[in-house]
Design a protein that fits this description.
Elements lengths: L8 H18 L6 H12 L4 E4 L6 H11 L5 E5 L6 H5 E6 L4 E6 L6 E5 L6 H4 L1 H8 L1 E4 L2 E4 L5 E6 L12 H4 L4 E3 L6 H10 L15 H12 L5 H13 L6 E3 L3 H17 L7 H12 L4 E2 L1 H6 L5 H15 L10
Parallel strand pairs: 1-8, 1-9, 2-5, 5-8
Antiparallel strand pairs: 3-4, 6-7, 10-11
Helix pairs in contact: 1-2, 1-9, 2-11, 10-11, 11-12
Length: about 325
Amino acid sequence: MTGAHTSAPGDAVAIDAAARILANVEQVVVGKHEEIALVLAALISGGHVLLEDVPGTAKTILARAIAQSVGDTSFARIQCTPDLQPTDITGLSIFDQRTREFEFRPGPVFANVVLVDEINRAMPRTQSALLEAMAERQVTVDGVTRDLPALFLVIASENPIDQEGTFPLPEAQLDRFAVRMRLGYPHEDEEVSIVAAQRHGHPIERLQPVVGVEELAALQRAVEDVYVDELVLRWTVQLARATRQVAGVAIGASVRGSLTLERTARAWALLEGRGYVVPEDIERLFLPVVGHRLLLTASYLAETRAFGRDEALNQIRERCLEQAPPPAPAWER
């Protein structure tokens, strides 16, 4: 790095708020520290999350726990089906017989935390209703544009196993998600503790807020002040650009990929208790942030079919790191 950087008092306040949210959510989502941190990194950096996992892995509980950890926030769940209409998400104008005027009834997308369950079961036209909301934090209905809440997080889920009656998300929509990840099953001891803890009801019902909306807004502003060394910033861009050149990738990460990787890394640093980004942050977040933005070639997918997409992306990651190695520490230069 070109110079030393220490945490400022403002960093310490933000780090404390981030740690409280993380610890609070871990009370109900057991054994998933890094996965929860990834979702929170997306939240405080202004991004959205796509959870690709089988049913019963706490996707809904995670979304609810985040909403309940922040005071005065709203949570909405959209259950996607093939007959779901765009207005079921955005809302619609209804004619009021008494006033003889149209009155807008907001849809569930106007909540602070929105869980879009099994998003790939919705028709493409309905899926696209989320594009404007996710990208611009606004929706347009009947020619009128309405702003969404300042605190706005979409957590979408999809089942990677059951493909019948589903509509895969197009690349343009995948690019709107800051992070794509899996929660996975807990370890045996963790699952035992989960079962034991729910004998008298789910812990989510007892979860209390630990930060307010203003405190979370301050945390989001603090992300902008997290220090990123010039060498780390340049390497972040080089790593994203490497995806456009390595074998096996038909279309690499866009500029949005570079922007999201850098911003999410700053949020991740706060969650790790630092006011600065280190190369390990970029390396850890590379696949969750960039992996779903890559369109792999048909020949490479055929070649790695026996290993699965995750292993295929791991190989791409290694190729990118070979082409764009991380910057050496200051004492080695």
